[in-house]
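FAQ: What does the model actually see?

It sees only this:
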Amino acid sequence: MFFDYSAEQQDFAGSLRKLVADRAPLPAVRARLGDAHDPDLWRTVGQEMALLTLAVPERYGGGGFSLEETAIAVAELGRGLAPVPVFEAVLAIEAILRTGTGAQRQELLPSLLSGDRIAVAALSGPDALDPGAGPVTARPAGAGHTLTGSLPHVLRGHVADLFLVPALAADGAGLFAVERTAPGVTVSGPGSSFDLTRPVCAVELDTVPAQRLGDGPGPDLDGLVDVGRTLLAAEMTAAAQACLEASVEYAKRRVQFNRAIGSFQAVKHGCAQLAVEIDAARAASDWAAMLAGAGDPGLRTAALIAKAQAADTFTACAGWNIQVHGGIGFTWEHDAHLYLRRAKADEALFGSTARHRALLATRAGI
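And it is asked to produce this:
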């Protein structure tokens, strides 16, 4: 089966790629490795380009598109390691859409869609796969709840105004909205994250007042995590393509024994093999995005396939990029190691590749 973007989607992807090249080239990314956040670029993608509204229904102030377009945005910004929390923010917005009541959506979404406030969903760690065993507990308190526990790995928690936290209440797991300024919230970091372009923070909750999203039975957190896997797979596939393109470009210019190294059979075969792997990852991630956009239950398996394939492919391409560069890509001065760091960190998000394949077997009834 062959997938391709429509002409409009291709133009959209091209405009985003140009934006990243102009506003966030890798030297600019390096300049922000401390916090990996560019407020000016964030205002551009949030207010001027309205990227956070793409998959949001028009009745809530959104663009009325689908998760396919959101995946394109996440992919193009991830391709260049752009220092803005788009992946984290759109996943949080999707969480509110899927689990919140109508009143909660009307209350929370406007400032998040404009980019005036940033929400982060603490769903990317292994505990998100089994919220009932997670580290945060919820207790009734008046008309709401209080949360107590630790979140050791929250992506870009240092820029968040609102945290969406999975927690175990007396009646089951739920998703809770916590204001950063609420009493009892302590955010540590960004600390020494392996991925320097996407910092991780620790969040401590000590009897923190929280608003539970939804008014019915427990939310479909598994489905929400599948959306996160799908968006992450799109990002990883695009970043893998960037690594392969960098490898090919260098192999054309680097000369050894009076020949460009790209003419050597081992280099040609290595690049060709990774091109095949990228095609497979792109097909899987595009298929998962289509299912997510359509609300198709097939996403339960497609998201796992997409994330596992993209994780392996991105790691292989990032490592190959360093190899083709003769090892200099591993040095601090070269940009290739930034992609390897992102690849290894992304590989662990939502659980390892082995865990994804084991979960796939369970869901497929194998």
